[in-house]
Amino acid sequence: MEERVAIILAAGAGKRMKSDRPKVLHSICGLPMVKHVANAVSSVCAKKIVVIGYHGEQVKAALGDTVQYAEQMHQLGTGHAVMQAVPLLPEKGLVVIVCGDTPLLEAATIEKLLADFQQSQAAATILTANVPDPFGYGRIVRDERGQVCKIVEEKDAADKERLIQEINTGTYIFDINALRESLANLDNKNAQGEYYLTDCIAYLIAQKQLVTTSILADYRLAMGVNDRRQLAEAQALMQNRINNKLMANGVTLVDPQTTYVDVNVVVGRDTVIMPNTMLRGTTIIGEGCEIGPNTELTDCQVGNEVSIRHSVATGSILEDGVTVGPFAHLRPETVLHRGAKIGDFVEIKKSQIGENSKVAHLTYIGDAQIGSGVNMGGGIIVVNYDGRKKHQTIIKDGAFVGCNSNLVAPVTIGEGAFVAAGSTITKDVPAGSLSLARALQVNKEGLAKRYLAQKEEE
Ligand code: UD1
Ligand code: CA
Questions:
Q1: Which ligand 1 atom sits nearest the alpha carbon of residue 80?
Q2: Does residue 188 line the site of ligand 1, with CB under 6 A?
Q3: Of all residues in the chain, what percent carry a pLDDT higher than 70?
Q4: Does the active-site annotation cover 337?
Q5: Can you list the domains of the chain with their CATH numbers?
Q6: Of the bound ligands, which one is closest to the alpha carbon of residue 78?
Q7: What distance in Å separates the CA atoms of residue 412 and residue 404, rounded to the nearest whole number?
Q8: Does the C-beta of 12 come closer than 6 Å to ligand 1?
Q9: Nearest-10 Cα torsion for 113, 117, 123, 126
Q10: pLDDT, tens digit, for every residue of 237-279?
Q11: Under DSSP, is residue 235 helix (H, G, I), strand (E, B) or coil?
Q12: CA separation for the pair 184, 431 (Å, rounded)
């Protein structure tokens, strides 16, 4: 089979973003734009070359060794960027060229472009689209027979050309030899003084080589992101796409407009997502859950039939039948085993809560291993930090910890033990014992009246 390689252009600073970060690393729906693009071309090209420049090390860190890199030291234009990748291209075959700032491109679009390129046997095929507002894009100039003549950039276009609504999406397939030859003949005599990749098209046509187009029916899929407004627009479009997919797979979104789900999130059927909910990163949610309203889950694994209301969780595992919230905060490495109940104003960090255990109100738990069937009363603080080090707390199965207790770690509460309310526990509590670690109460009979009378005299 003919060799296929993709070149992804990602060296530009993206001046219009007014950012210290390279444009292609700005995220939409949880992934940097360039990663969306790399994913879209993956179905057609296993081999990908990313042209890096402005803060190239950051782009490398984001994409890792899934791709090869070519460095463009100075950003002298898209044609110049492609020239830097040429030494890495095979002798012959085809090359898909995409911009790192068109994150909405889909694999199906690239596949269709490939089919059109192969069918037409062209030297190059341009992915074009008809857009209502072509401002800023290169325009596709055609002759009276409808054949492509050239692409003209906004800044170089004559008034008449600016009226053209068919634009260059910045995605193309070139025969590798045709690309090499046309790049060798590029110049930078244009309004921006850049080597435009788009000028390769006019060159090939002048050489009597065939250039065809593949027209994208939904122009929004090829939208380029040059500024923050377009970033928000692309985010909204992709969010809409993700939400529609979720609903098609049997997930209820009570208010899709306020449901924000990252591209790699998985949600099981019959789960209901309530308004104002963000599901981020690598979060996976099972079936029949109720998530939200006002909930943010990042990199969490959630089982089936779980309820999470008005809460924030990061890097946590919630097994089947768990309920959380309202107003709970689960920090990384929290594991809630089957049927655990976490109530309001509870914060948990790096801790295990065993099956059917309850942490119902106003409690902090950090660095603790809590067994099954444990009842934690209200207002308990696990004192895990002594100002220098973190220490472990272990609470065994069936223990009961009364309200407003402090458990000063390291400490172990034995199986079935009972800690009286208001205790400050500094030593281990053996299994089955009742522990009382507070000042005992003194009652002075009849003294209340005298005390009050005294007060009045003062
Ligand atoms: C480009 C096209 C335009 C098309 C539009 C589609 C050219 C000359 N113009 O314009 O016809 O309609 O995309 O979105 O190709 N880049 C580099 N090195 C450079 C310059 C750019 O790697 O020296 C990269 C950028 O990081 C970016 C991509 O190329 O990912 C496109 O560059 P950008 O400056 O956004 O081009 P547009 O003006 O949008
Ligand atoms: Ca662009």
A1: 23
A2: no
A3: 100
A4: no
A5: 4-222 (3.90.550.10), 250-435 (2.160.10.10)
A6: 1
A7: 17
A8: yes
A9: -30
A10: 999 999 999 999 999 999 999 999 999 999 999 999 999 999 9
A11: helix
A12: 82
